[in-house]
Amino acid sequence: MLDAGESSSNPTSGPAHDTELATEGTLDSGYDIIPMPVVTKAVTNVSIFPYHSIPVSRNKDFYDRVAILDMIDRHFFPPGKSNYEEGNNAITFAICGPGGMGKTQIAAEYAHRCKEKNAFDAIFWVYADERSKLSDGIGQIAIGLKLIAENSVDSLDPVITANITKGWLANPVKREDCNDEEVDTQASWLIIFDNTDDLEVFDGLWPFDGPGCILMTSRDPLAKESTTLAESGIDLGPFTTEETSTMIEKLTNRKGDDSLGVGQRLGGLPLAITQMASVIIRNHLSFDEFNQTWDEKDTHNDLLNLDGRRGNTDTYEKNLSTVWAIENLRHGKVLLDVIAFLDPDTIQEYVLKAESLSILDNYPRTVLAYHRARTELLQTSLVSKGTTSQNLTVHRLIQDVARSKMKPLYYSHAFLTALELVCSSWPFEKFGWCHGVARWKRCEELFPHVLRLRHFSTSLSLSVDTLDMNLQYCKLMNDAGW
After folding, report:
1. What is the pLDDT of residues 425-470, one digit of tens each?
2. Fewer CB within 10 Å, N- or C-terminus of the chain?
3. CATH no., domain 325-479
4. What pLDDT, in 10s, does the model give residues 376-391?
5. CATH homologous superfamily, domain 46-235
6. Three-state SS letters, the chain
């Protein structure tokens, strides 16, 4: 350290040189500026390719979804056009849908099919449900391609490794031997980002540049919007009853007329189908016996919470309750619990919006609270909504799992809240006026909810505390013609 008035003996020091150094490496406040690593043209040896990193094993029971695989292929490989011309941005496609719909299985099947036919020089799989996992996964690409030494100090820095990976993806050079000469060529690559449910985790990490392909899975339907992330995508729907029947026969290795009944009960959800196939096999049930068991009061709720593992396969290691993680919802849980007692196919939003309710205190009453709750349910694909429609829809099995998590007292309160909402929207006929036709359209809209409430009312017991709501229930049923 130099005392005041001393000068350095370094011949390169001086006002001009010191100013230059200060500009390049420090701030006036004394903090150092750490420059981002400059990634130049990355080169790897030919022995690295083909490089396939697919941690999800191939599902030997993968069923149907061929049309979706073909759709992804056509998007990545449009006829007569090369995706790998220098300067192109990555081509992106998103598979969206609720948990248990088979998004990851489709992505894994596509990756394994591409590996079989050598469609890409490199295939990478990155888990994206948390930012730390996403950053680490992107950084591991640099290590796997030997762009950075595995045991080096820089390999431990996720910022450095992620930037090196992004540099290579933007200019994916590989070195090939050709007539005793080394020639640089461009590698084709595919990245699968799995479980990208929080789209903000990609801030600063999304590989926009690069002549490759990105396939992502997400519960958030906005992931497939070009203004958000992917330029195209699909909302994954359930199997039809016939497809479910065929799949259950394949998984159980048996046939029977009642397999259609199984298909009707499971609603086409792949995880539920796989899980119930395991139940049928382990309990030596015929399809008819399974249907009878399912139809018993509340029995199917217990079945849905069973572990879905079958044999030693790791295809579906979680049950529906775990996958949907309803209990982890921060804003939308109470709204979903009330929706669980309404008709799943058409839930009018004017029914759900209420400023005052006498039962559940934490139901979203204000417009802001309702929108926050609805947004969380939409982002996790637990409910869906059309772009112009003011109605919500929900899968019946999601309703089943939501109700199965409720304790008896809370179950009653959630039911009574649904009843209160429907009654608030129902156009009761005024006293002394009969057969008013003006209200019939609204009655027709709400009548499916009345049927659902009537169905669930049989499992409730009357109490003095809820006498007013019991009278309201009787009034609704009477006015609806029951």
Report:
1. 998 877 655 566 677 888 888 999 998 999 888 777 655 456 667 7
2. N
3. 1.10.10
4. 898 888 888 876 678 8
5. P-loop containing nucleotide triphosphate hydrolases (3.40.50.300)
6. CCCCCCCCCCCCCCHHHHHHHHHHHECCCCCECCCCCCCCCCCCCHHHCCEEECCCCCCCCCCCCHHHHHHHHHHHCCCCCCCCCCCCECEEEEEECCCCCCHHHHHHHHHHHHHHCCCCCEEEEEECCCHHHHHHHHHHHHHHCCCCCCCCCHHHCHHHHHHHHHHHHHCCEEEEEECCEEEEEECCEEEEEECCCCHHHHCCCCCCECCCEEEEEECCHHHHCCCCCCCCEEECCCCCHHHHHHHHHHHHCCCCCCHHHHHHHHCCCHHHHHHHHHHHHHCCCCHHHHHHHHHCCCHHHHHHCCCCCCCCCCCCCCCHHHHHCHHHCCCCHHHHHHHCCCCCCCEEHHHHCCCCCCCCCCCCCCHHHHHHHHHHHHHCCCEEECCCCCEEEECHHHHHHHHHCCCHHHHHHHHHHHHHHHHHHCCCCCCCCCCCHHHHHHHHHHHHHHHHHHHHHCCCCCCHHHHHHHHHHHHHHHHCCC
